Amino acid sequence: MSRQPMTPAEFDASCRALVAACPFLSETSGRRTTERNEGAGGSGASKHLLGMARDFAPDLGYGLSQAEAQAEELGLWATAHDAGSGMHLHVQGLPVGPPARWWLAKFGGSD
């Protein structure tokens, strides 16, 4: 499946669909301020700063591989990893790297 950058509304809908399909997930982080992102050890290019990334933690006893596969089916970029605060699923509605100028012009951010 070829993934495309999502609009904020598409990203929100995909995250809602992910939680509906994987009710063992709890959202632990979404949009972050610059200060919060720095405190969490996030990159200056984090999609959390644009509101286009969310982190989900599983309830005890559940693995993240099912949720990661489901997220990718929904068109999200997803990775299960431990960023120092425990295993979680990171999803984003934009590819890795700087957002395209057209996306920033239409949905937010600045050059």
Quick summary:
This protein is of the alpha+beta class and 111 residues long. The protein has helices at 8-21, 34-39, 65-73, 101-107, and strands spanning 25-29, 53-58, 77-82, 87-92.
Tell me about this structure.
The protein has a 4-stranded antiparallel sheet with strand order 1-2-4-3, covered by helices on one side. By secondary structure, the chain is α+β, with helices and mostly antiparallel strands. The N and C termini lie far apart (30 Å). The protein has helices spanning 8-21, 34-39, 65-73, 101-107; strands spanning 25-29, 53-58, 77-82, 87-92. 32% of the residues lie in helices and 21% in strands. A hairpin with a 4-residue loop joins β3 and β4.
Largest sheet: 4 strands, antiparallel
Helix content: 25-40%
Determine Rg (CA atoms, Å).
14 Å
Round the mean pLDDT to the nearest integer and report it.
91
Q: Work out the number of β strands.
A: 4
Q: Pairing-aware structural class of the strands and helices?
A: alpha+beta
The side-by-side strand order for the widest beta sheet comes to: 1-2-4-3
Classify the oligomer: single chain
- Note the gap between the termini: 30 Å
Characterize the overall form.
Answer: globular
Strand content: 15-25%
Low-confidence regions: none
Order of helices and strands: HEHEHEEH
Number of helices: 4
What labels would you give this structure?
4-stranded antiparallel sheet; 4 strands
What order do the helices and strands come in, and which of them pair?
Layout: H1 8-21, E1 25-29, H2 34-39, E2 53-58, H3 65-73, E3 77-82, E4 87-92, H4 101-107
Antiparallel strand pairs: 1-2, 2-4, 3-4
